[in-house]
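Quiz preparation item.
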């Protein structure tokens, strides 16, 4: 008589996902010249955005305008490690700072903000829709989270073409709850695409505290279900950001697929210029400005390296002159010819 087959032993213990993880990033050891360059770029973004806010108040910038003041260390620290012409960058609608961090001329950015023909998108994109194919900068997208699947597509292109490039895809803490984000995560890990997902966690999304809007407020864990490792990094320290960029680029370039980094940062202005930001106190904002400002943080580092206060003041004056010149260029530039309405428009079906 045949013996009955033994039943397979089923463990009652849940299986823990086996996820390979990168090393914990260390602060980047910058030379004095490198830190001065980071400082200049952050200061340029700060002064540019302050001027943009003024022009918006004067009615010279229309539509929506989302300023990057307070978050400068994230874009500068990350994009200083990218290779222009090889890698690609895509972000949401808070995009002026990311373009400046990539070395794009402040004049053409300000001209775009004011809707002028000399703008980088010929005055048709405005604040939220800026592109520079030459720099591998693909926007500027007004739909929350829409840039994430698009960035995943850019990463697919890098892998398909075997060009060694990596796509840096930014999103905010409000975008992480969008369903398309997780569809993109799944595809990226299935194909081990070379992509760095960056969450700029400024704690309030469009105006709701993350504690009230996210069941899992530790956003660096959002890729775990797709076996995407995550890191949480101080986004107010440009050297901590650059250190994280080094680790993430090494991870993706070595063929290990996507990685997610949550940068803890803080914007000083409201969600947009029309936001009074009544969901937080003035004291909270002032406390961050006084104790955790990314530019002040860099200033202290430079002073420790022997840079004098007079030199820092001279840099600030130089940057202010650049921004004033960009604003004048934009104000003096002509508006687009009406015929421009019909350029760069897809007509017909294919």
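Solution:
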């Amino acid at each position: 008589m045949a013996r009955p087959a033994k039943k397979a032993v089923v463990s009652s213990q849940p299986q823990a996902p086996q996820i390979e993880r990168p090393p914990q990033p260390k602060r980047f050891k910058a030379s004095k010249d490198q830190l001065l360059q980071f400082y200049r770029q952050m200061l340029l973004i700060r002064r540019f955005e302050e001027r943009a806010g003024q022009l918006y108040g004067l009615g010279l910038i229309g539509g929506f305008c989302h300023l990057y003041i307070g978050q400068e260390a994230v874009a500068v620290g990350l994009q200083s490690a990218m290779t222009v012409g090889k890698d690609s960058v895509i972000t949401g609608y808070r995009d002026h700072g990311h373009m400046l961090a990539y070395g794009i001329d402040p004049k053409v950015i300000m001209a775009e903000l004011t809707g002028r023909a000399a703008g980088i998108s010929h005055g048709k994109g405005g604040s939220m829709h800026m592109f520079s194919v030459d720099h591998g900068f693909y926007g500027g997208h007004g739909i929350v989270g829409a840039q994430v699947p698009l960035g995943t597509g850019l990463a697919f292109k890098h892998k398909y073409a075997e060009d060694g490039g990596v796509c840096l895809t930014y999103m905010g803490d409000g975008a992480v709850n969008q369903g398309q984000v997780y569809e993109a995560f799944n595809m990226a890990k299935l194909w081990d695409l070379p992509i760095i997902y960056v969450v700029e966690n400024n704690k309030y999304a469009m105006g709701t505290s993350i504690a009230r809007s996210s069941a899992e407020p530790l956003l660096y864990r959002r890729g775990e279900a797709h076996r995407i490792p995550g890191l949480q990094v101080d986004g107010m320290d440009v050297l901590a950001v650059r250190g994280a960029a080094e680790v993430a680029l090494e991870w993706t370039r070595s063929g290990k697929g996507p990685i997610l980094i949550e940068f803890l940062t803080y914007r000083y202005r409201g969600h947009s210029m029309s936001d009074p930001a009544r969901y937080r106190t003035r004291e909270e904002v002032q406390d961050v400005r006084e104790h955790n400002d990314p530019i002040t943080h860099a200033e202290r580092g430079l002073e420790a390296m022997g840079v004098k206060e007079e030199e820092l003041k001279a840099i600030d004056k130089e940057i202010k002159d650049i921004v004033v010149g960009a604003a004048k260029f934009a104000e003096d530039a002509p508006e687009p010819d009406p015929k421009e309405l019909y350029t760069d428009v897809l007509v017909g079906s294919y």
